[in-house]
Specification:
Length: 446
Amino acid sequence: MSLPESTTVLIVGAGPAGLTAALSLVHHGCRDFIIVDAIAQGQNTSRAIIIHAATIEALAGINAVDGLLSRAIKGEGIRITSRSSPIIVARFDSLKEHTVHPCALLSPQNVTELLLGQKLQSLGVQVQRPHKVVGMKQDENDPRITDVSFEDGQVVKARYIIAADGARSVVRSIAGIGFSDPDGADLSKHPRTQMVSGDITFDREPVGAQTIVGHFNGIVSSDAFFFLTPFGTHFNAELTRGEKLVAKPIFRISCAIPAKNGEPPHAPPKEYMQNLIDTYGPTCISSNPSVNPTPVKIDQLIWSTRFRTHSAIADRTFARLGAAILLVGDAAHIHSPAGGQGMNLAIRDAIFLGEAVAKHIQASTGNPDVDDTILQEFAGVRHARALEIIGYTKKLLGLAGLPYDVRTWWMPFSQGSLRDLVLRILGRFEFVQSRIAWGLSGLGRR
């Protein structure tokens, strides 16, 4: 499909960040933009699954949340347990004094993308696919314009380029912007840098509190931590798109892989995932009858993947290569999935970015040489917020990864056991539960 020869704003990438940036631009009165993506169609994998209260509020602010509110599962809280016993529960209804949306929404990322894309289409905007950026250079005739080259030979002139093209951002790379861990961390020194995720069904309905739809479950064990989120049959059509429809309830599982286990397969097979469940998952979904009186086994593995849990942030969120180049989402920052903060930060960044770009366009209407203060201020604030989130997720990852082995002869409790004991005691207090919910919600760091 042919692209226009020029546009005011070019959005590269149509994931949650790119789609939200487009919605924000429309909301703030800018329609002279195009949004492109390198792949022919959106993904049908779950990936990120939680939309927190601060993000729900931000989407409501640009009239883009109704579809999600009606389609997503209303998450009631987060439950932390050992493999067989509860540790602490934090309920999101404790946020009702701070927001009109005291919950989290459980929505697989492909469903979120679908709903955001449908909203964008209803506003008359279509994602242009597949168009892969391969080059950028300053325009010869206008120093405030960049000529963006695509793999199919087309060239688009743009005044603003929003890079929402993921952690391996082509735009960021061409612009020469660095991308590294702000603490200079060495991945090889962290015992749990690898994770696997998958969507599965069981041969029969598992029994247990952790299998009830509406909670996000975190399970800590001797060598790893494990996440379980029941979807019921709520998203079966979207998660099995293009394949035979699955009738059974679908569960999302994720597990940190201890370094001693070696590198996980690229797309872990059913047997690998079953072993993870039996070793690190809650006993209520185990296939081992010695720990689970109603054993269950994986029936279908719908999707699986592996990934690393490292953190990185771009040296700059804003730069100029003729056009103003602004990074958003994974192109700007990545971090551990602990707490489900990644997609949430990306969406909020994109909403604020749309407003900042619209303001800068308006300011430049009467003064083509207007300075970049508006964009620089946006970039500074969001860069600082990303650093804050990276620090927060590293603390969560460190807390979840405390070991259960006894470290010294004079210390009868392992670090993991001590953590569990403290959380069990403190978790009885509503104040502690509400502070956990507050931290996860993002309401204090929009």
